[in-house]
Amino acid sequence: MKKIYWRPSKVPRVALLVSTILAIAALSSVELIKVKRKQPFFEEKFQASLNMKKGMDVIKTYRIRHFGPIDAAADPAQSGMIGLPQSLITSVFGHLPAKHNTINPNWAAVMVEMFKKAGLKEGDVVAAGFSGSFPALNLATLVAAEVLKLKVLAITSVAASTWGANIPEFTWLDMERLLQK
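Now predict its structure.
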């Protein structure tokens, strides 16, 4: 009969048993002894993520109400932040998976982290170049600045790449105006 398992013949069974017990003990200690640490600026990041989600919901509701259902194939998350494959205001080709990556509200938390690492404080002015190509990242930037009480000087482009804010009647400027209301 052929052996199914191979084991080194020169290693004693006791040594294998001891190393197995140590491995199980190490794994158990890692799983059972957890240290909970809050990230720096946790409260601000959490609030920014919540606010971005609210903003995305406002945009989604408006878009459905005025432009019909969202294309589930292009926007599986039904975020309302993914535009058309082509329109009159489409500027260049955009990669759809890149647009999908931006519709996570946690991008607002990332922006909070970036603003804090840059040393920005309440009342500081931030110049932001907004493109319709990535409306979700624009929203993340605005929300993070709002949470940190920064002043945003926005430079905005109406054009957008494919899958961005390229619905001619609902550009990034329209979304921004809607959010300000």
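The first strand starts at residue 125 and ends at 130.
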